[in-house]
Amino acid sequence: MFGLNRARQTAAVVAATAAAAAGALLGAPTATAAPQPIVGGTTTTTTAYPFMMQITDASQSQFCGGTLVSARKVVTAAHCMVGETTGSVRVVGGRTYLNGTDGTVSRVSKIWIHPSYTDASDGDDVAVLTLSTSMPYTPASYVSSSQTGVYAAGTTARILGWGTTSSGGSTSNQLRTATVPVVSDAGCRSSYGSDYVASDMVCAGYSSGGVDTCQGDSGGPLLIGGVLAGITSWGEGCAEAGYPGVYTRLTTFSGQVTTQVNS
Ligand code: ARG
């Protein structure tokens, strides 16, 4: 979960000049960072977002987020599941605080990782977990493959997680949320070059930075209109100007997710 940013260092040097030149493309026309006390944002609860799951190790130590899409199915990032087994992972629902003991803990009976997944910056960063125990929480709806219009540049998207509140900082004990505008493909390409695979990814963030997902938020939801439309995947640092967060473009994988949800 924490290694992806290393891969971005060399690209950053090359892309920085291009990004500065193309800065106007990076955000929505009205995208000025709204400082909010994730990076930026505010605290919230799993009561407000009941589908928000902690993905933890066997000791219930959180390392990624996930989204409940049916009583026994959780959508997360493939990169969160690298090296994991059904025995090494737990899913915790209904727990707002990392140090809480409340909510529902489930074991995982199956881990489906997109068969083409190799690295988050190559796309296909999606996984579906099958739970051993049903979660008594309202699941989220997710986009269908035809709903590609949800990613129109400038659309407001919501991010959620327990990740670090600054790059290299510490995680948040309480669940946090923020909103960020969807960035156009051209804007994201100008930031990330060929690492941005438009068919599989979508970017969101302010051109001036300041609000973003960060380490530990991976696997969690990008919601558009309250519907799961993306999965926190990667980025250069966190909340840096000119480097929006990169999310899995869920419309591309919706059919495969549905196959897993119904399996
Ligand atoms: N890979 C990170 C994780 O494992 C998520 C990084 C998101 N970065 C960003 N700048 N939006 O949690």
From TrEMBL:
It comes from the Bacteria. Residues 38-262 form the Peptidase S1 domain. The keyword Plastid does not apply. The keyword Transmembrane helix does not apply. Its main location: secreted. InterPro entries: Peptidase_S1, Peptidase_S1_PA, Peptidase_S1_PA_chymotrypsin, Peptidase_S1A, Trypsin_dom, TRYPSIN_HIS, TRYPSIN_SER. SMART domains: Tryp_SPc (SM00020). Keywords: Disulfide bond, Hydrolase, Protease, Secreted, Serine protease, Signal. Residues 1-33 form the signal peptide. One of its GO terms (cellular component) is extracellular region. It is found in: Secreted. Pfam families: Trypsin. CDD domains: Tryp_SPc. GO terms for biological process: protein maturation; proteolysis. GO terms for molecular function: serine-type endopeptidase activity. Belongs to the peptidase S1 family. This is Serine protease.
